[in-house]
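<purpose> Linking amino acid order to shape
<body> The protein record starts here
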Amino acid sequence: MRTAKEEIEFLLDFVNSSVGRAPGERLNDYRKAFAYQNIAWRYVSIYIYKSLLNISDEKDNALRNSIINSQKAIEIYPEDKLSHIQPLFIAKSLLGESLLEPAKQVIEAEQINKNENISPLITMLSSIILNDNHSLFMEMLKTHEKKKHSTVLSGSYDAIVQLLKRDEEGFIKALNSMLLAHHKKANSPSSGIYRTCYSFLSLDSYLVLALSEFLGMNVRSKISENIQTLNVPLRFPTEFPKLPKNYKMALSVDYLTATANFA
């Protein structure tokens, strides 16, 4: 029988094999920039899989490579800066680096483009980091969260409200709610994160918690819903015809750190 660790090792090898190829020179700037953006996201995937496998000496390099490729995408096609800056913002946050400069770029680009090529949550977080007027972005976040197939994790708006009120108890409750919403999505075949590396790490929850720490709130040890049992499906089930069609591997995962207990 296949184990969760074997599946994650396979996924890491699979993603690793796809990041060594630079975009073709014949591509126009638009396509070349998006190719670099895709590479940036793949490096975030590599970070998550290495974190799960506890390969700590190399995982941060994956995030730095994500930043480099995001910057290349921005340089080549700045018209889509909002789209290209998202993996950079996430990688810097996961590294614990300052988000002041990427936050500034997010707000400046959003004011020019007014498009939906970046998570409304990241726009909201950026405005708070810059101590900017965030009332418009709050409404945007609230509206997007209510959409049927929203990319904004349920509970995000309430978590930001509680954070801005500096209501520690309310914030903890809201963040736990976000983590439970993520757990539901991670186990649902109809969700956008099912069978992806983002089922192992609740990015929205992580970013909101990181913002709370930036603002001086210390509640990480009080969060209770971050460790859950994820039923990991096979990424390529046709490669294992002898296994049941809906074969899954139970794995204890910390959704805030992308760490796992393979015992």
Remarks:
- The longest strand covers residues 227-233.
- The mean pLDDT is 93.
- Residues 4-261 form one domain.
- The longest helix spans residues 29-52.
